[in-house]
Amino acid sequence: MASLFIADLHLDDSRPHITDLFERYLAGDEVRQADALYILGDLVEAWIGDDDDAPLPARIARATRAVRESGLPVYFMPGNRDFLLGRDYAGRAGLSLLDDGAVHDLYGRPTLLMHGDTLCTDDVAYQAVRRQVRTPEWKANILAMPLEARRAFAAKARADSRAHTGNTVESIMDVNADAVAQVMRGAGVTRLIHGHTHRPAIHDFSLDGHDAQRIVLGDWYEQGSVLRVDADGAALRGLSP
User: Fold this and answer.
1) Contact (Cβ atoms closer than 8 angstroms) between residue 2 and residue 232
2) Taking the complete model, does pTM exceed 0.90, yes or no?
3) Is the pLDDT of residue 171 over 70?
4) Sheet harboring 109-114: ordered strands across?
């Protein structure tokens, strides 16, 4: 048995083959025979609210609810693209919401789970925007807008994000090693799993004299990416569309 981790799918109508891959994977044997499925943020390219009446959110909900109804828990941690996803949609989709920074025991090893964006502390501009949009007042103002206005706002936000990414030194958008060490010490763990940076890898290092591990989940822009964790360790692999 194993627990499965995915993140940064960025599901969007512009890449229907990736949505197809997501549905096939969730309906497959690996998921249905697992102990749990974790989605660590950025399931979609943009989330404009639980009341979105577009076909894609309903399609995603059917796929995740089918997994939950098969008896498998499906954990979801909001990322920077879908932090507005709330309890209403989670209930319809069979998702158990996780706070960023939750610690779960995985086969005897406490593991810190994060989306990963808060670890990119060198990207000062991004962190400033993040603090602004996570306030209850900002969220309430956005969700009070009509759906079409929210769609337009989300499109502009994606364009701004692409511009920021294109104009920022790549290393600044990666995690900061000191930030990683700090959160792992604070959580009392030697293993961290996160997404966000789109740099899939398993990093082994020393933390205060102890063997430690940071696992980065891959994105789903061109293909799928899955982390399988069991009692023997962890392994990353890709999924072909």
Assistant:
1) no
2) yes
3) no
4) 102-106, 109-114, 191-194, 210-216, 201-207
